[in-house]
Amino acid sequence: MFLPASNPRAIEKARSVGADLVVLDLEDAVRDEDKGAARVAAVVAVLQDFGGALVAIRVNGSDRAEHALDCRAVRSSEADLAVLPMVGDPDVLAAFADEVGKPVLAMIETPGAVMGAAAIARASGDVGLIAGTNDLCAATGIRNEEGRTGLITALQTMVLGARAAGVAVFDGVYNRLDDLAGFEAEARQGAGFGFDGKALIHPSQVAPANRAFGSSPAEIEEAAELVAAASGGAERFRGRMVETLHVEAARRLLARTR
After folding, report:
1. N or C: which end of the chain has fewer CB within 10 A?
2. Hey, what CATH class is 2-213 in?
3. Helix (H, G, I), strand (E, B) or coil at 241
């Protein structure tokens, strides 16, 4: 869940909303005149627990005057990860990871970044990609409409690049805060595309995201039964043919649930 590091009320609420990762934002969500105070607030905020969630700090891009100060702050902080916006060059990402001394999540927000997603995902220090769908739409003219038809190729390219590199990949934000049904539908679409989770911008989106990317009790039960029944090779299970790859998928589901 992304939130502005300049908003102390949002930071305190984020400690108990149940998100898996809290991203304290120093970039787009913070006004220019508040960036210095936000930087200090982020470093202070991560000294306290966020309910077991991982915590990341998103810095301003390398083209901004605040970038160097952000990097020094992140390196000195107790944050688990750093988030780098507008990534386009794997070497720049690797240098950033070395500078901040943290694992990095890379924002994929431009056409060039989409085309280079696999290389970015393989960069030293990179542990995951985040789809920056708003910026990508602005850069390409693609309309971020219901169903996201125009974005499907870009989203799938990110997933394939991340999977080829063995790193995580997260779907982009959903802007319509009052439309939780629409959010959950998009989250389920993202889960179907192969994303590991979804970027959130409001606490109300946490529960539907967990439903969309989690597993139902019936799915968990079936996975446990499949693992227990598997004897190797192709075999019949609940009226269908399964192989080792299906058993491994069931094991991953159970591990993710735990």
Report:
1. C
2. alpha beta
3. strand
Angle at 210 (CA atoms; ends 130, 29), nearest 5 degrees:
45
What is the C-alpha separation between 242 and 253, in angstroms, rounded?
16
pLDDT digits (tens, 9 = 90+) for 84-127: 999 999 999 999 999 999 999 999 999 999 999 999 999 999 99
Name, in order, each residue with C-beta under 8 angstroms of 62's C-beta and a sequence gap of 6 or more. 86, 92, 96
| C-alpha–C-alpha distance, residues 69 and 29, integer Å | 17
Where are the chain's structural domains? 2-213, 217-257
Neighbours of 98 (CB within 10 A): 12
Nearest residue to 90 via CA among 114, 129, 116, 108 = 116
CB 200 within 8 A of CB 180: no
In whole angstroms, give the CA distance from residue 16 to residue 10.
11
The dihedral sign for the CA sequence 42, 205, 133, 145: negative
Q: Is the pTM of this model over 0.70?
A: yes
